[in-house]
Amino acid sequence: MSPSNACNNGALPGRPAVPLSFMRKSEKGEIIRISGSEDVRRHLAELGFLAGTKVIAVNTANGNVIVDVKGSKIAIDSKVASKIMCCPVS
């Protein structure tokens, strides 16, 4: 496992980082990395998706992933969600 996929700091031990699009309903995670173009990363940052931010997968619907970020429910395309790597947390 590469360091960029390692989960630390309160993450569940032995669990690798997963794309946000793979998280199950009600699963909690901490963002560790966001890939993609500079424009995509900037837009996600403006929505509150930053490394170290805790998120909760709320639901999936019509190719979108609904995520709780800092108390706000935000729907993002599953393709974009796949660029957000998270470590599962308890």
Short characterization:
With 90 residues, this protein is of the alpha+beta class.
SSE ordering: EEHEEEHE
Report the total helices: 2
Care to count the β-strands? 6
Inertia-based shape: globular
Please name the CATH architecture.
Answer: Roll
Helix-and-strand structural type:
alpha+beta
Report strand %: 35-45%
Q: Mean pLDDT, rounded to whole units?
A: 88
Largest sheet: 6 strands, antiparallel
The CATH H-level homologous superfamily: Ferrous iron transport protein A (FeoA)
Question: Can you tell me the residue ranges where pLDDT is under 50 for at least 5 consecutive residues?
Answer: none
Please state how the strands of the largest beta sheet are arranged side by side.
1-6-2-3-4-5
For the record, give the distance between the C-alpha atoms at the N and C termini, rounded to a whole number.
Answer: 21 Å
- The gyration radius over C-alpha positions equals 12 Å
Q: What fraction, in percent, of the residue positions are helical?
A: 10-25%
At the fold tier of CATH, the topology name is SH3 type barrels
In total, the number of domains comes to 1
The CATH class is: Mainly Beta
Written account of the structure:
With 90 residues, the protein is of the alpha+beta class. The chain has a single domain, classed as Ferrous iron transport protein A (FeoA) (SH3 type barrels, Roll). The protein is built from two helices and six strands. It has a six-stranded antiparallel β-sheet with strand order 1-6-2-3-4-5.
